[in-house]
Amino acid sequence: MAASACHEPGASSATSPSSPSSSKPASPTPTPTPTPTEVALVKKMSTAEKVGQLFMPTIPGSTPSAGAALVKRYHLGGVIYFPLNLHTPRQTAELSNGLQKAALKNGGVPLVISTDEEQGPVSRLPYVTRFPSNKLLASTKDPDEDTRLAAKVTGEELMAVGINQDNAPDADVNINPHNPVIGVRSFGANPSKVAHLDGVAIDAYRATGVAVVAKHFPGHGDTATDSHTGLPIINHTKAQWERIDAPPFKAAIDHHADVIMTAHIVVPGLEKSRLPATMSKTVLTGLLRGKLGYQGVIITDSLQMTGATIKFGPEEAAVRAVVAGADMLLMPRSLGRAYNAVLAAVKSGRISRSRLDDAVTRIIRMKNERGMFHPYVSVAKAGRVIGSKAHRAAARKVAADVRAGA
């Protein structure tokens, strides 16, 4: 099943964020200033440790040992879970705590632990309380409340098992009915409605404490090619992009999305050199940072996807993504080779020290703002939160609304 859009791999003192509950943003996104503690933490890190913060790979197995070894060896900034890692709420909570213990050893930095829990067809946790796809949520008699409930319950259940970031919601405007990778993951084909419901979902997710990832920038909704298997080209003019694709991402920024995920797509109207957006400084630094004013973390979509590597090899793709403005690198094909390539690029000056420090500072700031420096969860409580009476009642309410709107 497509995800972030990620392939599922084979077996192999924090401040409290504001959490607005309405669909209106609490305030314009300010230009953030790192705290003295955050600056000091980045300053004391070695180059090898800083490079490690950029990586979010998969991990093997469902117990902490193998994943903990990777965390310590590469000083990882994060990991991503797939079903092979997830069996029961208790087991997942123990896995998360074990990985965090490894990350924090010897004064280390806690992990971002993420997954693709969009609900609908993209669901990773086999035991999570189930909700329908975004398209169905958007079609009920009460789309705002149903979207809010789905995000609230999902965020609470993820946090209970130590998953502190959800790669959701999908912010693509699905105007191509033949789109093979987005489809019902989107709230629909109306840019205003998608933007509004993205805002509702982001507010609800953030209120639970989970970090939010809006995806896939600059917009994956009008393609007939799956970026897992090819490199889509979207022939929107800049004016069409502004009208169709941009509104949900502007809403995501206004609602303080913690992370925005890139798309492995080519949009010639935005990038004349026809580079994939993930490797385009024009798109990531010029458009997302410069024009839209986004100050949060930028993460790539999975670097295992063909769309990421069809023009460049896996290691080169990772280096180019960082140069372009990406702060985190999701699921490199070979963690060791990609890590060494980025480290070498820093040492050679191809990736400047200031670009590296900027990326790491954003990551550390996000971890601090979202409470990730207090990472441990109650193993005993996890099973009581998942599928609680209140959560089941919310799921029944949403299901009834879907049936009524069908």
TrEMBL record:
Keyword Ligase appears in the UniProt entry: no
EC number(s) given by UniProt: 3.2.1.52
GO molecular function annotation: beta-N-acetylhexosaminidase activity
GO biological process terms, semicolon-separated: carbohydrate metabolic process; peptidoglycan turnover
InterPro entries xrefs: GH, Glyco_hydro_3_N, Glyco_hydro_3_N_sf, NagZ_Beta-hexosaminidase
Chain ranges of the Glycoside hydrolase family 3 N-terminal domain: 48-365
Biased composition (Low complexity): 9-26
Source organism superkingdom: Bacteria
Region Disordered, annotated ranges: 1-37
Tagged with keyword Cytoplasm: no
Reactions the enzyme catalyzes: Hydrolysis of terminal non-reducing N-acetyl-D-hexosamine residues in N-acetyl-beta-D-hexosaminides
EC category name: hydrolase
UniProt keyword list: Glycosidase, Hydrolase
Pfam families for this protein: Glyco_hydro_3
Family stated for the protein in its record: Belongs to the glycosyl hydrolase 3 family.
UniProt name for this protein: beta-N-acetylhexosaminidase
